[in-house]
Amino acid sequence: HAPVRLTDYQPPAYLLDTVDLHFQLDPGRTRVRAEMALRPNPAAGEPGAPLVLHGQELELLRLELDGEPLTRAVYSVDAERLVIPEVPDGAFTVVVETATRPEANTALEGLYTSGGKLCTQCEPEGFRRITYFPDRPDVLARYTVTLEADRASYPVLLANGNRVAAGEGEEGRHWVRWEDPFPKPSYLFALVAGDLTCCTDRFTTASGREVDLHLYTEAHNADRGDHALASLKQAMRWDEEAYGREYDLDLYQVVAVDDFNMGAMENKGLNLFNSQFVLARPDTATDADYTNIQAVVGHEYFHNWTGNRITCRDWFQLSLKEGLTVFREQQFAAAMGSEAVARIDSVDRLRGAQFPEDAGPTAHPVRPSEYVEINNFYTPTVYEKGAEVVRMLHNALGPEGFRAGCDRYFERFDGQAVTVEDFLTALEEANDRDLRQFRRWYTQAGTPQLEVRSSFDAEAGTFDLCVRQHTPATPGQPAKEPVPIPLALGLVGADGHDLPMQLEGEEAAIHGSRVLLLRYEEERFRFTGLTEEPVPSLLRGFSAPAEVDYPYSDAELAHLAGHDSDLFNRWEAGQRLARTHLLAQADAVRSGGEARLPGPLHQAISRLLEAPADDAALMARALTLPDEGQLAEYMETIDPDALHAAREAARTGLARELREGWWSLREQFRDAGPYRFEPEAVGRRALANTALGYLMAEPDEAAREACMEQFREADNMTDQLAALRALAASDIPERQEALEAFYERWQDDPLVVDKWLAIQAASPLPGGVERVQALMDHPAFSLTNPNKVRAVIGAFAMRNPVQFHRPDGAGYRLLADLVLELDGRNPQIAARLVKPLTRWRRFVPEREAAMHAELERLRERAGSPDVGEMVDRALG
Ligand code: B3K
Ligand code: ZN
C-alpha cells in the first residue's frame, strides 16, 4: 500500500455545487441514487482532466453524464475509483446509482446497522462506501437527502440540516427529505433510520434565535438523556461567551448508537454518539462517565465552528480541527469545574498516551507528512499534543490576542477548507506577531527534554538557571531544531511564598509566576536580589508539552508539594517524589532485593492526610500514586514485574501504616445525600473512594465489610463501581460474590456490563490471560461491538501491565490472535489494538523477543492496510 504524501496535494479538478441523494433504505441491500452538479475548478488549472470519483465495496447499477447513460466503454472502475476520462468543458451533472450492504458492513464505516438502526460514519473516508464520490474534505457541496424506508421498522428518518418534506410510499414505506443549507464535505454527511425516542429541549442563542435540541435514544434509554442535553446547552452558551460563536441551524440532533468505532462524530446538525458518551443515569453511569459526556458533547458541538464551518483542506491538516477543538473542550471543562483538576487530568492523558507515542516507533508530527491509512492518524499526538500546541499559542498571545486571532480566522475562512498554515497566519495578522519558529511544533515529532540546572550565590543574591532543550530523534527525523518553549515558572521561598523575580538588567521585579520564552538550545537566566535560595517551580500549569529534568531533592519536592502557589505543580511535585522512589524500589527488585514503602513517600502521604483538604478532587489526585504505565516510561529497560512489585509494596505499605487516616478520610468525605453531578460532590466521592482503595489494598475484616456494604447499598454507579473495582482486585471470597451479584443485576444493560468486563480484565490478580479468555467466551461479549472489545482487550492490554506482560508471552499471543480475527472485519479497531505491542524495544529481553515474535506473525498474516501500516512502523 503506497503512502499518501502532503507534498503531493493537488486541488480538486472539479468542484461540486449540489448533491441530491436518494436512499432506498434496506438493511440487506440499500440503493443509493446520487445526482451531482459539477464544474471545472478554476483554481486547479487542469482543463479537460478526467473526473475521478472514489468508491469502495459498491455495486454500480447505473451511471449517467448530463442525462445520458454511460457504458463501460467510456468509463473505468476498479476497487477504489471510478474514472470518466472525458467530461464536458463547462458545468455538467453526473448521476450514479449504487447498492451497498449495510448488514454485511462490519467495518462500521459508511452505511451500517447497529441494533435495529441504520446509521453512517463517514469521517474520514467512509462516504465512498455509500456512493462514487469526490470523497475529499476540500470538495464542499450543498446536500439534499431523501430517505425512504419501511415505516414500521424505521419510523424515524434523520439526515443533516432541516426536515423539508415527508410523505407516504407504497407497501408500508415512507420518506423524509432533508436539506442542509451549509456547504459541507462528504465526511460530515450522516443519516440515521430506526425506531427511536426523542428527548427534546430548546436553546435560545445570544442573538435570540430558537434552536430545537433533539436527542434520540432507544425507548428504554429515554430517561438517560438529561445530562447530555444539559451539557449541550452549557456548551452552546460557553461558545457564545468565550468565542462569540453561535449555532447556525434551527435544529441540533444527537443520536446514541451502540456500535461505534470511536467516541462520537460531529456531522453537521446530526451528531452521532457512541452511547457510552451520551447516556447517563446516576445508578448506571459514574462521575467519570458524566465528566466524559460533558466533554465529548462539548467537543462535538465546538466542531460546528472548528471543523464544520471551517474544515480541513486535506487529512494532513487533521489537527487544525482536532487540536483546536480539544483545546476548546479543555477550556470548557475547566470552566465547568475546577481548573487545576481539569489540567491535571488532561496532562495525565497526554503523558499516559502521547508521550509514549512520541517516544516510540509510531511517533509522528502533529501535522504528519505521510500516511498509508489515515484512520491510523487519529492519535493522541494529533489530538492531545495538537491541543497543547494551541494552548501554547493561547498563552503566548494572551487571551485577548488569541481571541482576536480566532475571530480573524472565523471571519476570513468561513465556508472554506483550509490548512494549519491559514490558522497560524490569522493569529499572526491579528496580533502583528511572527510565529515562524512556532511552526516547528507542527512539523517536528518527539517530546522536548528540558534539562534545567541552577546555582545560587548567597553573597551576590543571584540565582542562575541554565536551560538546555533537546528533542530526541524520531523515525524519519534524526536531527531536531530547537522549538520555542514557554517556560512558566516561579521561585518558591522557604516560607512557601513566591519570591519576586527580577532578571539581571530588568527595572522591576515580577511577582507570582512569569514565563521565559526559550528559543535556543541553551539559555541562561540570572535572577537578582534574592536573600535566600529559592526552590524553582518549573513548567507551571504544564506550560509546554515537554519533560523537565531538574535535580530536586526530596525536601524540595515536599516543599513544593505542600506550598506551590501553582496547584498543578503542587500535584506534580508529589508525583515526581513518588515516581523517583518507586523507580528506585523497582531497581532494587531487579537486583534481587525486596520492595518496601519508601520513607519519604510515607511522610509525604501522611502529611497530606493531616492537612485540611479544601479541594477534595485535588487531594484525591495527590493521594494517588502514578500508575505502572507512566512509571514504565521512566525506566531504562521496562520490567513490568519489578514495577508492579514496587508500586504494590508502596500501596500496601501506605494502607498498613496509615490505616486510621484512611478510615477517617473515608468517613469525613462519604457523601450522604442523593447523587448529584456537581464538582464538589464528585470530589468527595473521588476522595472517599481513594481511601477505600487503600483500605482494600490490605483488606482486613472491617475493610471488606465496609466495601461490601458500599457495593450493596450505593445509590450511584460511582460508589458501587469503586467498591467492585477494589473487590475485583483482591483475592478474597467476596470478590466472586460481588461480581456475580453485579452481573445478575445489570446483565441487560450493555454499558454497565462493559464496566463489569473491564474491571475483570484490568484486575492484576494472577491468571489474567485465562480470565480474559473466559470473558471473551461469556455471552455478554461480542467481537462485533467495539465497546466490548475495548472493555475486555483494551483494558487488559492497556491497563493491566503485569498480566498483559506475563513472562511466557501468553498476553501478547492473545492480543495478536485477536488482531488477526478483527483484521478482516473491522481493521480500524484491529489496528488500534496493535499499539501496545509497538513499544517492544523498551522491554526486558524476553518480553522484547516475545512481542517482536507476535509483530512478525502479524506482518505475515494481516491483510488490511490499517494493521499493515501499524506493524510496519512498529518493526521499523
Ligand atoms: N472527528 C471524529 C473522529 C472520526 C474518527 C474516524 N476514524 C470525532 C471527533 O474527533 O470529534
Ligand atoms: Zn474532534
Order of strands in the sheet with most strands: 6-5-9-3-2-12-15-14
Largest sheet: 8 strands, mixed
- The secondary structure category is alpha+beta
Small molecules in complex: (3S)-3,7-diaminoheptanoic acid, zinc ion
Number of strands: 31
Give the overall silhouette: globular
Mean pLDDT: 98
Description:
With 876 residues, the chain is α+β, with helices and mostly antiparallel strands. Among the domains are: 1-195, Immunoglobulin-like (Sandwich), CATH 2.60.40; 311-443, Orthogonal Bundle (Neutral Protease, domain 2), CATH 1.10.390.10; 449-544, Sandwich (Immunoglobulin-like), CATH 2.60.40.1840; 747-876, Zincin-like fold (Alpha Horseshoe), CATH 1.25.50. Helix content is 41%, strand content 20%. It has 26 helices and 31 strands. The strands form eight sheets. An eight-stranded mixed beta sheet has the order 6-5-9-3-2-12-15-14, with no helix packed on it. A five-stranded mixed beta sheet has the order 17-18-19-21-20, covered by helices on one side. Helix 18 runs antiparallel to helix 19 (750-761). The longest helix is centred in the middle third of the chain and has 34 residues, at 380-413. The mean pLDDT is 98.
